[in-house]
Amino acid sequence: MEVHHHPHVEKKNFKEYFLEFLMIFLAVTMGFFAENMRETISASKKENIDINSLFRNLTTDSATITYQMQRNEDEINSLDSMMILIRSGRYKYEPEMLYRLAYNTRSFQVFGYSNITYEEMKSSGSFSLIRSHDIRNNLVNYNNFINGGIRNLESRMLEAEKNQANLQSDILDDSFYPSVDSIINHHALRSDFYTKENKSTSFSPGKQVQFSKLYNFLFESNVLMNYYQMNMQILKGLNEQLLATIKKEYHLKNE
Questions:
Q1: Residue 1 belongs to a domain
Q2: Is the pTM of this model over 0.90?
Protein backbone atom coordinates (compact mmCIF):
# COMPACT_ATOMS: atom_id res chain seq x y z
CA MET A 1 0.00 0.00 0.00
CA GLU A 2 1.27 3.40 -1.02
CA VAL A 3 1.91 5.87 1.81
CA HIS A 4 1.40 9.65 1.24
CA HIS A 5 3.67 11.99 3.13
CA HIS A 6 2.55 15.57 3.95
CA PRO A 7 5.02 18.22 2.88
CA HIS A 8 7.00 19.73 5.67
CA VAL A 9 5.94 23.37 6.32
CA GLU A 10 8.30 25.49 8.27
CA LYS A 11 6.57 27.23 11.15
CA LYS A 12 6.80 31.03 11.45
CA ASN A 13 8.41 32.38 14.49
CA PHE A 14 6.97 35.12 16.69
CA LYS A 15 9.00 37.85 15.02
CA GLU A 16 7.47 37.16 11.60
CA TYR A 17 3.92 37.15 13.01
CA PHE A 18 4.62 40.42 14.79
CA LEU A 19 5.96 42.07 11.61
CA GLU A 20 2.86 41.01 9.65
CA PHE A 21 0.60 42.35 12.39
CA LEU A 22 2.57 45.61 12.50
CA MET A 23 2.29 46.11 8.75
CA ILE A 24 -1.47 45.52 8.78
CA PHE A 25 -1.87 47.80 11.79
CA LEU A 26 0.15 50.58 10.15
CA ALA A 27 -1.80 50.27 6.91
CA VAL A 28 -5.15 50.55 8.74
CA THR A 29 -3.90 53.41 10.93
CA MET A 30 -2.52 55.39 7.99
CA GLY A 31 -5.82 54.91 6.15
CA PHE A 32 -7.70 56.17 9.19
CA PHE A 33 -5.51 59.22 9.54
CA ALA A 34 -5.73 59.96 5.82
CA GLU A 35 -9.55 59.80 5.93
CA ASN A 36 -9.64 61.90 9.08
CA MET A 37 -7.35 64.49 7.49
CA ARG A 38 -9.52 64.60 4.38
CA GLU A 39 -12.64 65.18 6.49
CA THR A 40 -10.85 67.88 8.50
CA ILE A 41 -9.75 69.72 5.36
CA SER A 42 -13.26 69.41 3.91
CA ALA A 43 -14.85 70.73 7.13
CA SER A 44 -12.41 73.63 7.30
CA LYS A 45 -13.13 74.55 3.67
CA LYS A 46 -16.87 74.39 4.34
CA GLU A 47 -16.46 76.54 7.46
CA ASN A 48 -14.57 79.23 5.54
CA ILE A 49 -17.16 79.30 2.76
CA ASP A 50 -20.00 79.65 5.28
CA ILE A 51 -18.18 82.30 7.32
CA ASN A 52 -17.52 84.43 4.24
CA SER A 53 -21.19 84.13 3.28
CA LEU A 54 -22.27 85.03 6.84
CA PHE A 55 -19.96 88.03 6.79
CA ARG A 56 -21.55 89.27 3.55
CA ASN A 57 -25.04 88.77 5.02
CA LEU A 58 -24.15 90.71 8.15
CA THR A 59 -22.57 93.49 6.07
CA THR A 60 -25.82 93.76 4.12
CA ASP A 61 -27.72 93.84 7.43
CA SER A 62 -25.52 96.70 8.61
CA ALA A 63 -26.56 98.89 5.67
CA THR A 64 -30.21 97.84 6.04
CA ILE A 65 -30.21 98.68 9.77
CA THR A 66 -28.85 102.17 9.03
CA TYR A 67 -31.53 102.72 6.38
CA GLN A 68 -34.26 101.37 8.66
CA MET A 69 -33.22 103.64 11.52
CA GLN A 70 -33.35 106.69 9.24
CA ARG A 71 -36.86 105.72 8.09
CA ASN A 72 -37.88 105.24 11.72
CA GLU A 73 -36.56 108.69 12.62
CA ASP A 74 -38.49 110.27 9.75
CA GLU A 75 -41.70 108.52 10.82
CA ILE A 76 -41.23 109.52 14.47
CA ASN A 77 -40.87 113.15 13.36
CA SER A 78 -44.03 112.86 11.27
CA LEU A 79 -45.94 111.31 14.19
CA ASP A 80 -44.75 114.10 16.48
CA SER A 81 -45.83 116.76 13.98
CA MET A 82 -49.26 115.23 13.39
CA MET A 83 -49.89 114.90 17.13
CA ILE A 84 -49.01 118.57 17.62
CA LEU A 85 -51.26 119.52 14.69
CA ILE A 86 -54.22 117.69 16.23
CA ARG A 87 -53.57 118.68 19.85
CA SER A 88 -53.27 122.37 18.96
CA GLY A 89 -56.35 122.30 16.72
CA ARG A 90 -54.32 123.64 13.80
CA TYR A 91 -55.51 120.74 11.63
CA LYS A 92 -58.72 122.75 11.05
CA TYR A 93 -56.75 125.49 9.31
CA GLU A 94 -53.92 123.45 7.79
CA PRO A 95 -55.61 120.55 5.97
CA GLU A 96 -52.75 120.29 3.48
CA MET A 97 -50.27 119.61 6.27
CA LEU A 98 -52.69 117.16 7.89
CA TYR A 99 -53.04 115.13 4.69
CA ARG A 100 -49.31 115.18 4.07
CA LEU A 101 -48.61 113.90 7.60
CA ALA A 102 -51.42 111.36 7.38
CA TYR A 103 -49.64 110.00 4.31
CA ASN A 104 -46.21 110.02 5.96
CA THR A 105 -47.30 108.21 9.11
CA ARG A 106 -48.59 105.18 7.21
CA SER A 107 -45.31 104.06 5.70
CA PHE A 108 -43.90 101.64 8.27
CA GLN A 109 -41.84 98.78 6.84
CA VAL A 110 -40.52 95.75 8.71
CA PHE A 111 -36.80 95.09 8.88
CA GLY A 112 -35.70 92.62 6.20
CA TYR A 113 -32.50 90.92 7.22
CA SER A 114 -30.20 88.47 5.43
CA ASN A 115 -30.47 85.14 7.24
CA ILE A 116 -30.13 82.75 4.30
CA THR A 117 -26.69 81.41 5.27
CA TYR A 118 -27.58 81.12 8.95
CA GLU A 119 -30.72 79.07 8.20
CA GLU A 120 -28.86 76.87 5.73
CA MET A 121 -26.13 76.18 8.29
CA LYS A 122 -28.72 75.24 10.91
CA SER A 123 -30.62 72.90 8.61
CA SER A 124 -27.48 71.21 7.22
CA GLY A 125 -25.76 70.83 10.60
CA SER A 126 -22.72 72.83 9.47
CA PHE A 127 -23.34 75.49 12.14
CA SER A 128 -21.31 73.36 14.57
CA LEU A 129 -18.28 73.71 12.26
CA ILE A 130 -17.79 77.30 13.43
CA ARG A 131 -14.79 76.91 15.70
CA SER A 132 -15.45 79.98 17.84
CA HIS A 133 -17.91 79.39 20.66
CA ASP A 134 -18.41 83.15 21.04
CA ILE A 135 -19.32 83.60 17.37
CA ARG A 136 -21.83 80.75 17.54
CA ASN A 137 -23.46 82.22 20.64
CA ASN A 138 -23.51 85.74 19.22
CA LEU A 139 -25.10 84.53 15.98
CA VAL A 140 -27.83 82.74 17.92
CA ASN A 141 -28.45 85.81 20.11
CA TYR A 142 -28.50 88.10 17.06
CA ASN A 143 -31.10 86.02 15.23
CA ASN A 144 -33.17 85.41 18.37
CA PHE A 145 -33.24 89.15 19.05
CA ILE A 146 -34.59 89.83 15.56
CA ASN A 147 -37.15 87.01 15.59
CA GLY A 148 -38.19 87.83 19.15
CA GLY A 149 -38.06 91.47 20.24
CA ILE A 150 -37.84 93.11 16.81
CA ARG A 151 -40.57 91.03 15.20
CA ASN A 152 -42.87 91.45 18.20
CA LEU A 153 -42.60 95.25 18.05
CA GLU A 154 -43.10 95.20 14.27
CA SER A 155 -46.30 93.19 14.69
CA ARG A 156 -47.59 95.70 17.23
CA MET A 157 -46.56 98.61 15.00
CA LEU A 158 -48.43 97.18 12.01
CA GLU A 159 -51.53 96.66 14.15
CA ALA A 160 -51.36 100.23 15.48
CA GLU A 161 -50.86 101.59 11.96
CA LYS A 162 -53.85 99.56 10.74
CA ASN A 163 -56.04 101.06 13.49
CA GLN A 164 -54.79 104.53 12.57
CA ALA A 165 -55.44 103.97 8.85
CA ASN A 166 -58.98 102.68 9.48
CA LEU A 167 -59.87 105.72 11.57
CA GLN A 168 -58.24 108.13 9.11
CA SER A 169 -60.37 106.65 6.33
CA ASP A 170 -63.44 107.70 8.31
CA ILE A 171 -62.13 111.21 8.97
CA LEU A 172 -60.21 112.13 5.81
CA ASP A 173 -61.24 112.22 2.18
CA ASP A 174 -58.69 110.54 -0.09
CA SER A 175 -60.09 112.40 -3.09
CA PHE A 176 -58.08 115.30 -1.68
CA TYR A 177 -55.21 113.63 -3.55
CA PRO A 178 -55.67 114.22 -7.30
CA SER A 179 -54.70 110.67 -8.34
CA VAL A 180 -53.41 107.29 -7.24
CA ASP A 181 -50.21 108.14 -9.10
CA SER A 182 -49.66 111.04 -6.72
CA ILE A 183 -49.49 108.57 -3.84
CA ILE A 184 -47.48 105.81 -5.51
CA ASN A 185 -44.83 108.18 -6.87
CA HIS A 186 -44.77 110.35 -3.73
CA HIS A 187 -45.89 113.51 -5.54
CA ALA A 188 -48.10 114.14 -2.52
CA LEU A 189 -45.00 115.01 -0.53
CA ARG A 190 -44.01 117.94 -2.74
CA SER A 191 -44.39 121.34 -1.15
CA ASP A 192 -46.12 122.66 -4.30
CA PHE A 193 -48.46 119.72 -4.62
CA TYR A 194 -51.50 121.35 -3.05
CA THR A 195 -52.84 124.03 -5.38
CA LYS A 196 -56.08 125.94 -5.51
CA GLU A 197 -57.35 123.53 -8.14
CA ASN A 198 -57.10 120.64 -5.68
CA LYS A 199 -60.08 119.79 -3.57
CA SER A 200 -60.21 121.62 -0.23
CA THR A 201 -61.80 120.17 2.85
CA SER A 202 -63.16 121.22 6.21
CA PHE A 203 -63.94 119.21 9.30
CA SER A 204 -67.26 119.31 11.10
CA PRO A 205 -67.32 119.88 14.88
CA GLY A 206 -68.70 116.36 15.24
CA LYS A 207 -65.38 114.91 14.11
CA GLN A 208 -63.59 116.28 17.15
CA VAL A 209 -64.19 113.00 19.01
CA GLN A 210 -62.69 111.06 16.10
CA PHE A 211 -59.66 113.33 16.06
CA SER A 212 -59.17 112.73 19.78
CA LYS A 213 -59.26 109.00 19.14
CA LEU A 214 -56.84 109.41 16.23
CA TYR A 215 -54.48 111.29 18.55
CA ASN A 216 -54.50 108.30 20.91
CA PHE A 217 -53.63 105.93 18.06
CA LEU A 218 -50.81 108.25 17.00
CA PHE A 219 -49.55 108.36 20.58
CA GLU A 220 -49.49 104.55 20.70
CA SER A 221 -47.64 104.36 17.38
CA ASN A 222 -45.16 106.97 18.57
CA VAL A 223 -44.36 105.06 21.76
CA LEU A 224 -43.96 101.80 19.86
CA MET A 225 -41.82 103.44 17.19
CA ASN A 226 -39.48 104.90 19.81
CA TYR A 227 -39.13 101.49 21.48
CA TYR A 228 -38.53 100.00 18.04
CA GLN A 229 -35.81 102.55 17.35
CA MET A 230 -34.15 101.72 20.68
CA ASN A 231 -34.19 98.03 19.77
CA MET A 232 -32.75 98.77 16.32
CA GLN A 233 -29.92 100.61 18.06
CA ILE A 234 -29.26 97.49 20.17
CA LEU A 235 -29.38 95.37 17.01
CA LYS A 236 -26.87 97.69 15.36
CA GLY A 237 -24.49 97.06 18.26
CA LEU A 238 -24.94 93.28 18.01
CA ASN A 239 -24.31 93.46 14.27
CA GLU A 240 -21.15 95.54 14.67
CA GLN A 241 -19.84 93.19 17.38
CA LEU A 242 -20.41 90.13 15.20
CA LEU A 243 -18.72 91.69 12.18
CA ALA A 244 -15.70 92.74 14.24
CA THR A 245 -15.36 89.31 15.91
CA ILE A 246 -15.68 87.35 12.65
CA LYS A 247 -13.30 89.71 10.88
CA LYS A 248 -10.67 89.26 13.60
CA GLU A 249 -11.10 85.48 14.03
CA TYR A 250 -10.97 84.69 10.30
CA HIS A 251 -8.75 87.58 9.13
CA LEU A 252 -11.36 88.87 6.73
CA LYS A 253 -11.26 92.15 4.85
CA ASN A 254 -14.12 94.41 3.89
CA GLU A 255 -15.16 93.90 0.29
A1: no
A2: no
